[in-house]
Design a protein that fits this description.
Elements: H1 3-20, H2 22-30, H3 37-65
Helix pairs in contact: 1-2, 1-3, 2-3
């Protein structure tokens, strides 16, 4: 497991805990203030964001670890011609 994969898994795990148990997470981070309804709403949103970041990092790490054949080809610039132009 690479460092990026480990970080991504930790980020997703924290996000899941914050998303689905915001009161407990809020109490551990900010004492009673984190258990307030506003704090819980913030933690739910932050948890969803961290789940997305962790999932994206895990996906990116798995694609790059498969080698160059799995990477998408770079985009090539398109040549746009005017309709009256020939050639």
């Amino acid at each position: 497991m690479t460092r990026v994969s480990l970080y991504a898994a930790g980020c997703a795990a924290f996000g899941a805990i914050a998303r689905f148990a915001p009161e407990a997470t809020g109490r551990s981070l900010a004492d009673d203030g984190g258990a307030a309804p506003d704090g819980q709403a913030f933690l739910r949103r932050m948890g969803g964001r961290d789940i997305g970041i962790g999932a994206g990092l895990l996906t990116a790490a798995s694609v790059t670890s498969l080698g160059p054949a799995s990477r998408p080809r770079p985009l090539t610039p398109l040549t746009v011609r005017h309709p009256r132009q020939r050639g």
